């Protein structure tokens, strides 16, 4: 079992990808999505998720709006911006480059 | 954009916190909804406060947020200690205001570049040589034929521009019947294109407007003059303006930013050099400055060398025409060195005369500022002591040292900021006031005193410097608090006072220096303004009078006779010019038909009765008579008799006046008069010869006269009350006769002490400010030490100490500091006096009174400041003090 926060710098990538597929998710839903889709291997901590969300918001990759849920509570829902889409492409490229490089090393050694 | 949002979020901090809290709360709610146990979810979430801080740090610029918090906290503290803050801010504002005003003046007079193209490449050519009396003499005036040759010599490398001194001339505006005064300059036609100036309306001069002597009767107006006198009427172009006797056509108005090159004066009318037709062809008439506009990339020295070669060649040629000139003068005539000094900020006599006084004053101002800073530093240190517990608490809950320094510095910055703002208002008000004092009232100096980025930058830098000056030491002290000791309340009570005492010593030293220098300036002004002039200037008017057409001497005699009959006139006479008005007429003489005698003799042409009008005593012989002519009988003064007749009575003797071309004219000495000031107030008495006014030409006829100065002694105490009726009388006496300038003799004499008066007044003002600030500072320190030592004093009183003993204990250290400061002040004063020696007059620096008076005033301030603290200390009630602890 990996350590809970073993995302190795891929948190931005995961959040962006999830928001691309499902726009309008709020923080808890994003956290759950990371957990579920990774088969409970990856775990984004609240302590890193929210600062990351706020940072990406200030960088203009995602934007947030307050939505009122069925129970009357407000939740902050996030969605991708055009800049975010570009950033996602970049992050995916980078991720692929890194994993293939790591794989090559694993194969040849 | 991200940075901008983070900066913006600082100022909506509460809202950001609320949003973060709500989002995080929603997160936990969601978790519970998903079936997690409420407590377990919160535990997994961790410290909500920490999460919030993490998010805030992302969303906000943390440094700015802390600065904002400190600023708010500092502001609250200032408002809480209202009286102390107001005192600190006001005293600093006074000092900062004085500093800013001094900067504005110095910048406007000495440093701000002229608004022209390539101001940094503009130089003024001066001729430096050895004068007749052996000292270095700087001569800024040039003759036009020489200028022409110099301009040719450097063509292509530099442009030479001739600009005459700005003088007040008589002008008659289009359609006006009255004659008024305007500042006029003769300038080279190519000045405007060379400076890259454009017309506001009409056109400016070019080289073609400056070719033929007397051939270009044109005028260009300044924008300021056009606005004031013509209401910006564009139709003024093409109209005629009468300047002196000549009519000029107005061709245009120069753009607003250009007010002339003579810093301290706004030129109002520009005319081409060639309009001074007689002067431009005269090889010995020096009447204008030469400005050198060097082309980019040309070395200055190349230009200078070429100018000097031409100057020496021309002077040597001229010398061959003066066979009678003594050898000593021949040498000094051709050994001038040309010096090029920067004229980027303009070229004027005021710049030269006021450079040193302004430097001296700005040093005084800076010292006042340091005294004010020391005051505030002491105040802050005292407050820091009271805050020791607060600081200790902050350290205990984890505040870093840097954070505490920032906290105290931000508070200092508030004080500095408010003081700078107040000071700027003070400077805005006071700088023009000082400019108005530079020249006599009838002839005010004018400086461009705009509030621009230079003044703004200076103020900001000053505020920052001041913040660190008075804030850093208290801030470092406050931050170095030891929590355990401070919270227990047992800090070493003496540690803080050492810094305060050092500051007191510094304050006293500066205060002493200011008082010492102010004393010297005041004594100089006193001595100079009370120096006897040798004549009586009260109730005397000098009327420069001009005839449209030259009139025979007898007509002028009739004018004087007519004025003598005018009611209110006590006596009247004529003279070539009023003494001490800046004019001089000198020459060389020969005794007993021998070679030219040593030294220069000064001349003044006067009418019979002039002695009586000026109240100059006749020592021997007789006054001039109406049938005396030039050359013929004359009067000489006592210095003349002493120098050329060994102090014997010279009446009945004779001498010859020798012109440079060798011709001689003979004079008989008819009378001996007492010495009086001829040119200025400083310096020794000059040998003066008073000659008759009518000039007998070689054909025996008398030369007609165009202009003379009427000297009128009035009966009433206020001579100016008679001015209007005298003008009318003069105009009625002869057609075409008018008064072109009217001054009181007193005003002329006082114009020689304007600089000394300004220095004395401002130095006195700064001395008073320094005295008050120093006294208040001393009081603050003493009072603080009494408050701090309450317990000790209480115990001492309880066990029977006398009031005198307590008083001695409190004041001993501080008075020792005052004495130390005064000693340092004496040393500083004696050391610095050399740099202001040229501004002083007959003041003995090592004089007992010049040191004793500042010492006495400062010890008085110390005693006054100590009194309330001593009273406070002696009145301490031991019982209540000891019970309260």
Molecular structure report:
The complex is a heterodimer of chains A (109) and B (885). By secondary structure, chain A is of the alpha+beta class. A three-stranded antiparallel beta sheet of chain A has the order 1-3-2. Chain A is globular and about 55 Å long. In chain A, strand 2 (62-68) and strand 3 (74-80) form a beta hairpin. In chain A, helix 1 crosses helix 4. Chain A has four helices and three strands. Helix content of chain A is 57%, strand content 15%. By secondary structure, chain B is α+β, with helices and mostly antiparallel strands. In chain B, 52% of the residues lie in helices and 17% in strands. Chain B is built from 28 helices and 24 strands. In chain B, the strands form four sheets. In chain B, strands 1, 2, 3, 4, 12 and 13 form a six-stranded antiparallel beta sheet that branches. Chain B has a six-stranded mixed barrel with strand order 5-6-11-8-10-9. In chain B, strands 16-17-22-19-21-20 form a six-stranded mixed beta barrel. In chain B, a hairpin with a 2-residue loop joins strand 9 (240-243) and strand 10. The longest helix of chain B has 38 residues, at 349-386. Chain B is elongated, with a radius of gyration of 37 Å. Chain B starts with a helix and ends with a helix. The mean pLDDT of chain B is 86. The A-B interface holds A 26-29, 32, 46-47, 50-51, 54-55, 58-60, 73-76 and B 1-2, 5-6, 19-20, 22-24, 26-27, 29-31, 34, 44-46, 50-51, 54-55, 57-59.
Describe what is shown at a glance:
With 109 residues, chain A is an alpha+beta fold.
For the structure shown, list the relevant keywords.
heterodimer; A: 109 residues; alpha+beta; 3-stranded antiparallel β-sheet; 4 helices; disordered N terminus; B: 885 residues; 6-stranded antiparallel β-sheet; 6-stranded mixed barrel; 28 helices
The share of residues in extended strands of chain A comes to 5-15%
Q: Count helical runs of chain B.
A: 28
Low-confidence spans of chain B: none
Fraction of residues in H or I helices of chain A: 55-70%
Topology, number of strands of chain B: 24
Task: Output mean pLDDT of chain B.
Answer: 86
Largest sheet of chain B: 6 strands, antiparallel
Radius of gyration of chain A: 15 Å
* N- and C-termini, Cα separation of chain A: 25 Å
Q: What level of helicity do the residues of chain B show?
A: 40-55%
Greatest interface (CB-CB under 8 A), with counts per chain = A-B, 18 and 25 residues
């Amino acid at each position: 079992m990996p350590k809970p926060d073993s995302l190795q710098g891929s948190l931005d990538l995961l959040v962006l990808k999830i928001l691309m597929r499902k726009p309008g998710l709020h923080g808890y839903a994003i956290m759950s999505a990371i957990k579920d889709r990774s088969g409970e291997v990856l775990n984004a901590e609240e302590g890193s998720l929210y600062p990351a969300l706020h940072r990406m918001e200030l960088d203009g990759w995602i934007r947030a709006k307050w939505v009122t849920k069925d129970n009357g509570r407000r939740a902050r829902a996030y969605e991708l911006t055009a800049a975010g889409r570009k950033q996602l492409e970049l992050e995916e490229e980078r991720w692929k480059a890194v994993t293939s490089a790591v794989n090559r090393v694993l194969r040849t050694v | 954009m991200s940075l901008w949002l983070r900066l913006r979020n600082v100022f909506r901090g509460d809202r950001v916190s609320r949003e973060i809290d709500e989002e995080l709360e929603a997160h936990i709610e969601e978790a519970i909804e998903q079936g997690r146990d409420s407590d377990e979810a919160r535990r997994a979430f961790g410290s909500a406060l920490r999460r919030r801080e993490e998010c805030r740090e992302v969303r906000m610029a943390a440094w700015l947020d802390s600065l904002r918090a400190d600023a708010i906290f500092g502001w609250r503290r200032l408002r809480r200690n209202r009286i102390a803050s107001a005192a600190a801010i006001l005293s600093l504002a006074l000092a900062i205001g004085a500093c800013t005003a001094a900067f504005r003046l110095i910048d406007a007079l000495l440093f701000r570049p002229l608004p022209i193209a390539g101001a940094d490449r503009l130089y003024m050519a001066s001729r430096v040589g050895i004068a007749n009396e052996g000292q270095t003499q700087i001569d800024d005036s040039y003759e036009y034929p020489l200028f022409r040759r110099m301009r040719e010599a450097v063509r292509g490398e530099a442009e030479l521009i001739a600009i005459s001194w700005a003088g007040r001339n008589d002008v008659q505006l289009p359609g006006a019947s009255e004659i008024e005064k305007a500042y006029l300059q003769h300038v080279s036609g190519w000045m405007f294109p060379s400076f890259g100036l454009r017309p506001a309306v009409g056109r400016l001069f070019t080289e073609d407007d400056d070719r033929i002597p007397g051939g270009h009767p044109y005028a260009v107006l300044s924008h300021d003059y056009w606005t004031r006198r013509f209401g910006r009427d564009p139709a003024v172009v093409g109209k005629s303006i009468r300047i002196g006797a000549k009519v000029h056509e107005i061709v245009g108005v120069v753009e607003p930013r250009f007010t002339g090159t003579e810093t301290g004066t706004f030129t109002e009318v520009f005319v081409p050099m060639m309009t001074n037709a007689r002067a431009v062809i005269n090889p010995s008439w020096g009447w204008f400055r030469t400005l050198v506009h060097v082309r980019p990339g040309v070395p200055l020295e190349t230009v200078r060398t070429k100018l000097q070669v031409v100057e020496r060649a021309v002077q040597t040629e001229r010398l061959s025409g003066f066979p009678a000139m003594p050898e000593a003068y021949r040498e000094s005539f051709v050994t001038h060195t040309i010096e090029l000094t920067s004229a980027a900020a303009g070229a004027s006599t005021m710049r030269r005369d006021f450079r040193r006084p302004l430097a001296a004053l700005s040093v005084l101002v800076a010292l006042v500022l340091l005294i004010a800073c020391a005051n505030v530093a002491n105040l802050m240190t005292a407050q820091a002591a009271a805050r020791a517990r607060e600081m200790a608490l902050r350290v205990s809950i984890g505040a870093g040292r840097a954070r505490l320094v920032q906290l105290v510095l931000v508070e200092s910055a508030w004080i500095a900021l408010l003081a700078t703002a107040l000071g700027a208002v003070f400077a805005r008000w006071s700088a023009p006031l000082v400019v108005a004092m530079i020249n006599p009232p009838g002839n005010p100096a004018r400086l461009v005193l705009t509030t621009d980025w230079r003044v703004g930058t200076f103020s900001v830098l000053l505020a920052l410097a001041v913040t660190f000056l008075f804030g850093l030491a208290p801030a470092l002290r406050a931050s170095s608090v030891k929590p355990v000791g401070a919270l227990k309340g047992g800090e070493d009570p003496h540690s803080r006072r050492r810094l305060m005492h050092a500051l007191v010593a510094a304050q006293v030293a500066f205060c002493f220096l200011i008082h010492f220098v102010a004393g010297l300036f005041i004594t100089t002004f006193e001595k100079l303004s009370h120096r006897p002039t040798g004549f009586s200037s009260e109730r005397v008017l000098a009327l420069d009078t001009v005839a449209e057409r030259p009139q025979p001497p007898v007509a002028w005699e009739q004018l004087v006779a007519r004025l003598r009959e005018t009611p209110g006139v006590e006596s009247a006479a004529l003279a070539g010019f009023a003494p001490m008005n800046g004019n001089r007429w000198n020459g060389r003489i020969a005794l007993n038909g021998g070679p030219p005698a040593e030294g220069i003799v000064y001349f003044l042409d006067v009418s019979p009765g002039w002695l009586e009008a000026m109240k100059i005593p006749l020592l021997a012989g007789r006054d001039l008579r109406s049938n005396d002519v030039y050359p013929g009988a004359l009067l000489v003064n006592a210095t003349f008799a002493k120098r050329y007749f060994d102090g014997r009575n010279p009446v009945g003797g004779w001498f010859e006046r020798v012109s440079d071309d060798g011709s001689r004219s003979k004079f008989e000495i008819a009378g001996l008069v007492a010495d009086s000031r001829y040119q200025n107030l400083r310096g020794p008495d000059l040998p003066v010869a008073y000659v008759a006014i009518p000039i007998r030409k070689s054909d025996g006829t008398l030369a007609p006269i165009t202009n003379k100065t009427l000297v009128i002694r009035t009966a009433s105490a206020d001579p100016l009350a008679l001015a209007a009726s005298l003008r009318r009388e003069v105009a009625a006496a002869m057609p075409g006769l008018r008064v072109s300038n009217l001054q009181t003799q007193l005003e002329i004499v006082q114009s020689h002490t304007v600089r000394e008066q300004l220095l004395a007044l401002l130095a006195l003002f700064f001395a008073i400010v320094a005295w008050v600030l120093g006294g208040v500072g001393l009081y603050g320190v003493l009072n603080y030490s009494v408050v701090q030592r309450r317990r000790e004093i209480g115990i001492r009183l309880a066990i029977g100490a006398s009031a005198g003993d307590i008083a001695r204990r409190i004041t001993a250290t501080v008075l020792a500091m005052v004495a130390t400061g005064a000693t340092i002040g004496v040393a500083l004063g004696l050391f610095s006096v050399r740099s202001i020696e040229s501004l002083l007059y007959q003041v003995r620096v090592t004089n007992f009174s010049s040191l004793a008076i500042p010492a006495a005033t400062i010890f008085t301030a110390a005693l006054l400041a100590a009194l309330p603290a001593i009273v406070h200390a002696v009145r301490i009630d031991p019982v209540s003090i000891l019970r309260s602890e």
